[in-house]
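Quick one - inputs below.
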Amino acid sequence: MTTPTTFWRLAGVSYVQYVNKASSTLRMALREPAKSKAVAQETFAYNRSQWTEGAQGPKTMVGKFSK
Amino acid sequence: RGGQPDEPSTFPSPPTTPSLSLRCRSPSANRPPAAPTTTMMISHLRRAASRAAPSVARRRLSTPAAPASGLMKLNFNLPQETLYDGAEVNSVIVPGAMGEYEVTADHVPIVAELKAGMLTVKHGGDGEDEKYFVPGGFSLTHVGSTTDIVCPEAVKLDDLDPAAVSANYEAAKSKASSAEAGSHAAAEAMIEVEVNKAMGGALGLSLA
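Output:
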């Protein structure tokens, strides 16, 4: 691998993480009607459900991942 | 027909190789008929090709036709929205990471990573310039005056809040100075500083 030359690469941040952080920074500086619409773009959540005997159990939203 | 076959000018001439005959010549036994050599096979192919439609062979690269009007075609896409889809515009000013540049019709093909900055679409003539602030992305200019620009977000300057930009800039600067050098948190703070500074520049604020 060639030596990384960008400050984010050197800190172990990938391009995708970099550009997503930059986009997030931009969205935080928006005025209100555009801001809520844009922030919705980056919001995400996970649902979890347990399958037993081929049937899906009830879905619950994952609050946080714990090890 | 006898003699040298006509060489169709549209085909690249293959490198001429000396006839390769890999059979050993046995001195005593009856020699079998000569194996077809490379040059003989090439001549066969050329004759067959010249009989085939030569006009099809002439175009070896497929390039999209440039717009006849002398304008360029712009495709500007975000993941959530398409801003321009094959629109014919006069030029685009692209904030490349290595420097800002303007793309017009018949521009040399170029691929550029974008930095946080202003992207301007010039319609030319009576049309107004459209300005967007982009946090990053990529711009690819192809042969045939087509440019594809992809960005994660693109906002109009009217939607930016100068007070929020200044406040976020100051907060990010203090975060960057207090964070451990070379850490993930420091890098994130520096990204915020960079983007807020670019936004400040676009809005005309003087952020130090």
